[in-house]
Amino acid sequence: MERIIFHIDVNSAYLSWTAVEQLKNGAEQDLRKLNAIIGGNQKSRHGIVLAKSISAKQYGIKTGEPVANALRKCPNLVQAAPDHKLYLRYSKAMMDFLYTFTPDIEQVSIDECYIDFTPIASQYKSPVEAAFIIKDAIYKKFGFTVNVGISVNKLLAKMASDFEKPNKVHTLFPEEIRVKMWPLPISELYMAGHSSVAVMQKLEIRTIGDLAKADSALLELHLKSHGRLLWEFANGIDHSEVQSEQMEAKGIGNSTTLPRDIDRAEDAFKVLDKLSKSVGRRLRAARQKANMIGVEIKYHTFQKVSHQKQFAKATNQDKDLYEAACELFRELWNETPIRLLGIRTSKLAEESEPEQMNIFEVQNQMKKAKQDEKKRKAEEAMETIQKKFGHDVIKKGT
User: Fold this and answer.
1) What is the pLDDT of residues 207-250, one digit of tens each?
2) Is the peptide bond prior to 166 cis by the omega test (within 30 degrees of 0)?
3) pTM for the full model?
4) Starting from the edge strand earliest in sequence, which strands make up the sheet with 78-80, in order?
5) Is there a catalytic annotation at residue 112?
6) Are 135 and 145 within 8 A, CB to CB?
7) Contact by Cβ (8 Å): 279, 345
């Protein structure tokens, strides 16, 4: 089967996430429907444009330009300050949601990722149908829109997602390159920067099609290895893989076919409790911790469904596994009688492997280190004084 790759890109991410949060907090107007930007300091008018609305773009406002310039182009421009903690929160929420579809995801920035759709393709009628399902589900769950590009490699999927916005699904398969990609200016090609574009324009290369038909040796002469890469991209050639976080161990899980069909959540939770304890014991025996857990349900009709989520921190504790399994079960179960239940952990890590701490843990550890250093210096000073003047001259307080 031919490989299928999705590229998912949040439409004007900073503006969208700010707008969604403002609407949650009672805002009467949606920034996305105004002449609006994210960036800079509203009082000082300093800073640069980080994101812009579609209507603001029509005034010639560009991402990266000074806010002062943008305000001159559009005097009634609405400006909102960036909130990077908020953006990280929305980014993580979206990625956690996408992991419920597949683990084969490579996040490349705060607002975009690649998905290797190939392993789950059989679950959908077509890639386009699946892309619409994912796109619409993100909007329904979070309130912001994404574009989804579909192709046989990462490059073409990325190019496809950059076509008409917002809230669109586009394909760019090899047979569509001549019609959809080649007429575009070379500045639209992924990895074609300003200096490269300037060199190619001197060589009378104006469009991506011109580049695709050019002599690759000539491009290498002027742009070295980057010239060859751009020529390959213009011809839709890209062999890079989706770099998902694959772990060496395949995972540890357990499932059970029930003696009778279950149609009550309380009964399912009892089974999940036993399965969680079994999987927890096996993880601890293998000295492993799980970063991801999945729940599988087989209904009495023999239809199978599954859901998975990532832990905030790797674990092998029964309680953590059980709570996560119950959460997934509640999201997944459609109240149809159940024939089989299963739990599977994946993305395993060695029990002794150092854990990545969150910002609060880092701050606490830094605070403790400072306190320890202060204490050490005080004790050294006390010892120096005691050696010089005697042990009774200074003592620790109680």
Assistant:
1) 999 999 999 999 999 998 889 999 999 999 998 888 775 433 46
2) yes
3) 0.62
4) 51-52, 36-38, 78-80
5) yes
6) yes
7) yes
What are 285's strand-pairing partners?
Answer: none
Contact 160, 170 (CB under 8 A): yes
Beta strands 36-38 and 5-10 are unpaired
Q: How far apart are CA 170 and CA 168, in angstroms?
A: 6
Coil/strand/helix, residue 391:
helix
Catalytic residue among 112, 245, 351, 379: 112
Residue 351 in tokens: 């029990």
Q: Which two tokens stand for residue 357?
A: 């701490």
Q: Is the pLDDT assigned to residue 390 strictly greater than 80?
A: no
For residues 275 and 325, the answer to whether their CB atoms sit within 8 Å is yes
Element (H, E) at 67: helix 67-73
Are the beta carbons of 230 and 219 closer than 8 angstroms?
A: yes
Task: Tell me the C-alpha distance between 247 and 279, whole Å.
Answer: 18
C-alpha atoms less than 13 angstroms from C-alpha of 263 in its C-beta half-sphere: 4
Residue 29: both structure tokens together: 């107007």
| Cβ contact 110:132 at 8 Å | no
With a cut of 70, say whether residue 43 has pLDDT above it.
Answer: no
Count of C-beta atoms within a 10 Å radius of residue 121: 16
Which residue shows structure tokens 């990325």?
A: 158
